[in-house]
Amino acid sequence: MVFPLVNLTINGSSRDSLTKQLYEQLRLTILSGSVAPGTRLPSSRDLAEQLGLSRNTIMAAYEQLVAEAYLESKVGAGTFVVKNLPDAFLRAQQLLSSGPPSTYGRTRTSRRQISKRGHTLATASVGLRDHIKRPRAFQTGLPDIHAFPFKLWAQMASRRYRDQVEELLHYPDPAGYVPLREEIVNYLSTTRGVRCKTEQVIIVNGSQQALDLSARILLNDGDVACVEDPGYLGSLAAIRGSEATVLPIPIDAEGFDVDVARERAPHAKLISVTPSRQYPLGVTMSLVRRLELLNWASDIDAWILEDDYDSEYRYKGFPLAALQGLDTEGRVIYIGTFSKLMFPSLRLGYMVVPPDFVESFTSAHAVTDRGSSWLHQSVMAEFIAEGHFTRHVRKMRTLYAQRQAALVAAAHRYLKGILDVRPEDAGMHLVGRMPEGWSDVRASKLVAGAGIETEALSSFSIETRNHHGLLLGYTGVTEPEIEDGVRTMAKALGGFTGA
């Protein structure tokens, strides 16, 4: 029997390599029963000429199929489909020949469903982005990686590999690298008013893992959890993933509305807040409101998750001390991250947990991923200890303040009547408010078509429908890029009437 070459179609524009495409098509041809066992394949030279491919590509595909027992090679005779396919291959052949592949796929999938929790996690909106080589205006939450001292970081990492290679190769402590935890304690006590000991600090892979761990450990199915509305989608996803009942609480000028929460959630088990700078609105929770929140949590015996995601970027005055520093009952779990201060792929965050729960959180962390990169933790510890971290944050604070001012000025020039963009004392993004009745979702799609990335403010809401605007991140792009981005937005929204 002659091997059916008509079945082989190679697409030069496919993301898959030529070798992979050829391998997959030969494999499926064999499994579908289109070719009989023992059929001789064309020589690698002949097939290369017929398909217009290199001989190395053909030989690589053949060798893989030989290794997987689809083909057998006979010296001096050629390459053949194996005569005795294993039972697993024969069953696959029967299934494939019983109907079209699409029918087969639907039938099998309908019998196997992911769990309710799995579906909740898989469908959660957490702002995932495609891989990018350079940030676009106006993505949120992205630091300027080009301003980071990578040469210094690389030198420090190189020293670690040279001097501590054996330590780096062992499993990391799930609680984290002790010198880094010690540096975090010193840093938080002096800059954020956090009160803790080294053993209370647990190093995690970013704040999202801290939120996920907290929800898993503190919430049972059906427990009530209060979240800010509008609020951070990552926190919402983590809580929903624990199958808790989510109760959205509106934000006013002082932050999380405790009076509304008291009325709506008298038996709440968990309260998730961003008091230093509410995400996405940018409101700072007042001291009076913080004390009210702590008193209410005490009354109902609830936990508080304090996500302090970007408090370092304050451009005027000093931030209020962390909520955790006001807590006298061990109810607050404080969460911080280095990803927005250093570079996103660092994936280092930390949480401060009450002393009685250190062992529980550490054990749970060990179950999920055994711990964070030992190399990154050790370099980060030295980076802080030698003063580089403080200098870098100070430098970026000045740079970002200039970029915020550039964004506000450009918006006033080009977006008057469309977006009301006002300066803020802190943060990595501004909210451009839209006229009442306008669709921020529609506006976001229009500017996306022009190559500008924004997030619709209303997409962060659960129940509230009175917040409309666009989130404009300014930290990851330069001032000329900010100017160009605003002009592009103005053109894209020039004929926009709000519908």
Structure keywords:
Aspartate Aminotransferase, domain 1; 14 strands; Aspartate Aminotransferase, domain 2; Arc Repressor Mutant, subunit A; 3 domains; four-stranded antiparallel sheet; alpha/beta; 12% strand; eight-stranded mixed sheet; 19 helices
Description:
A hairpin with a 7-residue loop joins strand 11 (420-421) and strand 12 (429-433). The chain has 19 helices and 14 strands. The strands form 3 sheets. Strands 3-10-9-8-7-4-5-6 form an 8-stranded mixed beta sheet, with helices on both faces. Strands 11-12-14-13 form a 4-stranded antiparallel beta sheet. The relative contact order is 0.11. With 499 residues, the protein is an alpha/beta fold. It folds into 3 domains: 5-111, Orthogonal Bundle (Arc Repressor Mutant, subunit A); 149-386, Aspartate Aminotransferase, domain 2, CATH 3.40.640.10; 391-492, Aspartate Aminotransferase, domain 1 (Alpha-Beta Complex). Residues 99-110 have low confidence and may be disordered.
The geometry reads as globular
How many helices?
19
Assembly type of the chains comes to single chain
Assigned CATH superfamily of the largest domain: Type I PLP-dependent aspartate aminotransferase-like (Major domain)
Strand order of the biggest β-sheet: 3-10-9-8-7-4-5-6
Q: Work out the number of β strands.
A: 14
Mean model confidence by pLDDT: 88
CATH uppermost class of the largest domain: Alpha Beta
Structural class designation: alpha/beta
Distance between the termini: 64 Å
Number of domains: 3
Radius of gyration: 28 Å
| Strand residue content | 5-15%
Q: Regions with pLDDT < 50 over 5+ consecutive residues? A: 99-110
Give me the CATH fold name of the largest domain.
Aspartate Aminotransferase, domain 2
Residues in helix, %: 40-55%
* CATH-level-2 architecture of the largest domain: 3-Layer(aba) Sandwich
Q: How does the major sheet shape up?
A: 8 strands, mixed
